[in-house]
Protein 1
Amino acid sequence: MAENMTAGAANEAIVTETIHVTEARIACDGGGGPLGHPRVWLTLGTDGEIICPYCSRRYVRGTGGDDD
């Protein structure tokens, strides 16, 4: 099955958590503490989302409600 996955599908398969944000530029530290990662600043793309390259958290602009 893995040989049939595209790069986009593989990235979607490893996303661990979706976080709704209101700003276009956010900081991610993987949750902090000893299990986190170095703080990185990420800028949402034109589609309103970004995936952290360290922890695969997906950040999406909006509140997560139906009225976004």
Protein 2
Amino acid sequence: MPAVKAEKKDEYFQTSRTWEYDRFRAAAGREKLAWIIAAVAVVLAIVAVAAVAMLTPLKTVDPFVIRVDRSSGETQIVTALKGPQPRTYDEAVNRYFIAQYVRLREGWLNDAARENAYAVMLMSDQNEAQRYLNSVQSSNRNAPSNIYGDKGFVSISIRSISFLSQTVAQVRYSKIITYGQSAPIAQNWNAILTFKFTTAPEHEKDRNINPLGFQVVNYRSDPEA
């Protein structure tokens, strides 16, 4: 076997070292790329989790109940008050006084008739109070005192309150009429009323009934067809 010259030997070893170095550089490059990809993936995962956490409070689920009237088949969505201010404060106040007014005006309990009539007049402006007074006078044969007397009882169930404008409301309600020993009779009615707020009443007794000066300006109620 011929001897390898010194020059060839040096060239061989140099080529071997270069090949090993290139392999080491390639492996190191692949490892570095893998770490970069892993780091980017971790950063993207953190960003995604943070984005979901930030958007979660914005996602709300509003449950509702659909109520069906068994007699008429009518449906309506029942909303629930939830949280500190589910609606605006003003709207909640308006709804309260409107519902209270309709219950007092349309309901009947002989023993509380005088107090309820006083409250209705206190919550009506001068013209509407006079119209109401005329409707409940004993001289009016359609007055509740003449129809129900001391044996009848009328309770009011508010079905819905809708605002046609800022000062006009539509109230759909049911009259549950009980007379003597007879079975209760339910009638559906629809009231339209215009309202406003004035200064609170001067006397403490009146402020206990109507603390914010709620007043109905016009009122009309008709049975639903």
Protein 3
Amino acid sequence: MRFTLIDLIILIAVVFAISSGYRRGFWLSLAQYAGLVLGVVIGATLAPIVIRAFSLNGAAIQSLVAIMILIVLGTIGSSVGYWVGEPIRLRLLAQPRGGRVDSFAGAVFSALAVLSVSWFLGLSLARIPSPPLSAAIQRSAILRGLDGIAPRPPAFLARVETIIAGVNFPSAFSGLEPVGPSAQPLPNSINTPGVQAAAAETLKVQGFGCGGIVFGSGFPVGPGMVLTNAHVVAGTQGTTVRSSSGRSLSARVVLFDPERDVAILYVPRLALPPLNEASAQA
């Protein structure tokens, strides 16, 4: 494991965070970072709503709009946090020793906050469709060390990580790829009512696993029950299911059989009926 450019960037960010945290103090730093996180979480909740409301099509446009919403609301949240924390900081500065203790605590807290943000971004970006960046993140000594000791992200950050991991980065060799064969026409069998009904009830399953988000699929087999593969939810936390309409629901594993690679998820707010099943002979 060697020192990489990403490690250097993280160390520089930590140095700036220590300097900034010392000037701002603990309570002002805490208020700003709390406002930033709250703004980003609210932005991740609103992003799908805005995209659907304006009928935005195309993965690139959707990713760009979602990221812009995260940035804008995160900035607003940080500004609100500053407005809340500044009076506390001024009161502490009026005390003989309160200002110095607050400054040292702010430096330590800001350094830890930057490391946490770096780890979360690395966790999110490690699975983007950009091999050079993904490989650089995987080789980072600092990020691998943080990932070894940090717990899994809380479930409420799942939507944020999904947006970040879904950003479409341009390929470094765009325009140089060989021309592949033309796509084959789709068979008429995919347009049958049965196939369309099954597609409407197919759910996207995701959870936080080792190194990033783990994706899979499933379908309802009973009231609030979803059948998926065991390897999709093995070792994951914050499991959610997403319907074809884009609605995301919290889920928990109630049956896990790794030998048969089968798992059952309980989704309390799932309103889909069980998928019709039938037996057939080969």
